[in-house]
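Recall that a protein's primary structure is simply its ordered list of amino acids. Everything else, from secondary elements to tertiary packing, is in principle encoded there. The following example makes that idea concrete.
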Amino acid sequence: MALAIRDVREHDLDAVLALNNAAGTGILVTDSARLRHLYDNAHYFRVAEMDGVIAGFLIALRPDANYTSPNFHWFQDHYESFVYIDRIVVAPEYRGHGLGRVFYCDVQSYAEVRVPLLTCEVFLEPRDDMVVLFHGTLGFQEVGQQKMGAKGPKVSLLAKELPSFPFVRERYLDGDGLPDVSWLAERHRPCEGAAQEVRA
């Protein structure tokens, strides 16, 4: 099977929404308006395409994103610079083949030339030990816990230090910036800064 990790396209959104809402208790259900808001505002929004079929996706944001998730706000309150993984979904038929690790390697390659931390959360209610173990093996450590609202589930807030960042900051970011090459380019966000706020 041919695998491609690529930036999301507008015509992918229906398939992404269906995957999101079929993912189970570990992923919050969303709607087309909220997904469109993420499409317009996310700094990283990539899909895995397997032989023409959307097999999964990962969405991540930086601190200046127009986004009102309580977990995203927690990281905004505690850290100046980071990439926050909002959600990752892999279709059931493609699980168990390492696609999650491929996504995390890809988002880390985006993050480590821009920020010192990669962040995310995992649900503790209900707790999924496989998800907790997965993040631990990738080097994430718990930096806090909170409940998502008065009646929401408890989450573990995770962060991973990116050891390449000091090298990049010293040699590039403190000077003229990253080289102007396609693999370092930012994702084009269709309505950058113009979309209405949508609550997660």
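The longest strand covers residues 53-61. The chain has a mean pLDDT of 91.
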